[in-house]
Structures are given as structure tokens and as C-alpha cells.
Amino acid sequence: MAAIKKNKDEMSFMDHLEDLRWHLVRIVAVIILFSIVFLIYPDFIFDKIILAPKNPDFVTYKIFCDIGERFNIGGLCYTQLDYELFYLNLSSGFLFYIKIAFMAGFIFAFPYILWEIWRFVKPALHDNEKSNLGGVIIISTLLFYVGVFFGYFLMAPFSINFLATFSLSDQIENQFTFDSYLGILTGMVLWTGVIFEIPMVAYFLAKLGLLGREFLANNRKYAFIVSLVLAAIITPSGDAFSLFLVAMPLWILYEVSIVVVMVVEKRKLKQVD
Predict the structure, then answer these.
(1) Under DSSP, is residue 211 helix (H, G, I), strand (E, B) or coil?
(2) Number of domain units in the chain
(3) Arithmetic mean of pLDDT over the chain
(4) 105-122 tens-digit pLDDT
(5) CB-side exposure of 12: number of CA atoms within 13 Å?
(6) C-alpha radius of gyration, the chain, whole number
(7) Separation of alpha carbons 176 and 181, rounded Å
(8) Is the pLDDT confidence value at 230 over 80?
(9) Same structural domain, 107 and 218
(10) Is there a single domain that holds both residue 68 and residue 142?
């Protein structure tokens, strides 16, 4: 610990590694702490969160059904989700119990993880960069959680139920392992949280001079097409309302990235002047 108390400017490479080790130790400790909290309430985690998108009374289905009935849009009501989940191995239930707890611990510890990263890189930054980085961490946290909620309440339910109800023949019964269900759910939630960090990725790439506003603006039409394709995959019902609801946030993220890059470029020009 003595090395960590040194002036950061005087620290050797090994001292920096020691410093990094303690940051990682604290991050892991906080993730474990949050995980233990979720281990205490398994019924709530599984019945109210993990398995909630499997039930027709899930809040997303209710909202979409109300919208469909109000505006006379068909295909938005899920009255019956006819499929069963099961374990393949005797130990699967316990292993999933631990896995889900750690995933939940990571999601809730995300702000602290960013804060530890900020503490580690802070000594190497200039004063103006330190103040900017604090705002970047706050915005990154908000974007991550917005993405997590978007993935959980919108992307995951539609994707899971399309795949689960898709059938090649009436003679084939819809039964799936809980592992496949959990993989799609957690994958959608976590990856959507990461995807919503696109504006922040654009910010850092622009700061490094690797990304320009002109490039993003010129490829806007391709980004729009990709957004529609992803929305069509996620909402296979194909109605315009569902496509719009899923594609619009993805498109907005791209447009926000263009604005972020433009702001970075203007600041660079001011510094040159």
C-alpha cells in the first residue's frame, strides 16, 4: 500500500500496476457485495425480473396491447405465451442462481466501476480534462441504464417471444432450456446497455482524431437502414408502429453521436486558435 501513497507522477510502472490491482480489487468487492444482496432474494429475482417477460401480464405487453386496441393496430396483444422452460442438468438451477446474481451485481455496480476507472486515470489528466471526465462518467452511467431498461422492457420480450413461438410444425412442441432463455435475456439487456454507449465511444474517438462528423453524416443513410433491419429482427410482427418504436432510439443514438463529434471538433478548433 505504500506505493499507492506516492505522488502519482513519481510512480514506476510496477507502482501503477499495484495501484490498478487495488482498483480492480475494490471493483470486484463491490460487485460481490451487490451479488450477495440479490442472492438473498432469489424468488424476487427469478419470478419478478428474469421470468417476467415470459408472462402475458408483463407490463410491456399490457402497454402495447392497450395501444393496439386504442389505435386499432393488430398483432400487438400477447394473450398466451405457450412454451415451457426446463433444466438439463441437476446442478443447473444453482449455477444459474449464482450467474444471475453476479450479472445483477455488475449492472448495479456499474456507476462505481466507472468511478474507480476515473480515479485511476485522473492523475494523468489535465485540469480541464478532469472536470470533463466527471461529466462523461455521469452521462455514461445514464446511457448504460437507459440501454438496460430499453433492452429489458422492449427488445428482450419481443425477441424471446418471437423465437419461442416460432414453429415449423404443429407436431413440434415448444420446449426450451432455461439456459437459452437466460442467454437471450441477459445478452439483450447487457449488449443494449453497451450499444447505448455509442455517443460516448464517438466522443473518445473524436478526441483521439479517429472519427469525424463528416464521416458520420455521409453514412447517415446506412445507419438508418441498419436501424430498420435491427428493428425488423427484434419486432418480427412487421407493423409500422413496432418498427418505429425500436428503430427510433437507435437512430437517435446515431444522430446524438454526430452532434457529440461536432462539439468535440469545434472545441479542438478553438484550442488551435
Answers:
(1) coil
(2) 2
(3) 82
(4) 999 999 999 889 888 877
(5) 3
(6) 23
(7) 7
(8) no
(9) no
(10) yes
Instruction: Give the integer Cα–Cα distance in Å for 267 and 273.
Output: 10
Residues 16 and 141 in one domain: yes
Instruction: Indicate whether 218 belongs to any domain.
Output: yes
Q: What is the pLDDT of residue 3?
A: 43
Angle at 98 between CA 95 and CA 100, to 5 degrees: 105
Could you say which of 196, 215, 240 is where a domain stops?
Answer: 196
Question: Cα separation of 192 and 184, whole Å?
Answer: 12
Write out the three cell numbers for 96: 444459474
Residue 130 lies in a domain: yes
Same domain? For 16 and 134 the reply is yes
Examine the domain organization and report whether 167 and 211 are in the same domain.
Answer: no
Tell whether the model's pLDDT for residue 229 goes beyond 90: no
3-state secondary structure of 166: coil
Instruction: Specify the pTM.
Output: 0.80
Q: Which residue, 166, 196, 226, sits at the end of a domain?
A: 196
pLDDT band per the 50, 70, 90 thresholds, residue 240: low
Angle of CA points 37, 40, 44, to nearest 5° = 100
From the centroid of its chain, how far is CA 126? 30
Cell of 160: 424471446
Residues 142-161 have a mean pLDDT of 88
d(CA 58, CA 157): 9
DSSP3 helix / strand / coil % (the chain, rounded to 5): 80, 0, 20
Please give the Cα distance from 102 to 94 (Å, whole number). Answer: 13
> Cell numbers 455521409 correspond to what residue?
218
| Helix or strand holding residue 190 (H, E) | helix 178-195
Gap between the terminal Cα atoms of the chain:
44
Same domain, 109 and 208: no
Same domain, 187 and 246: no
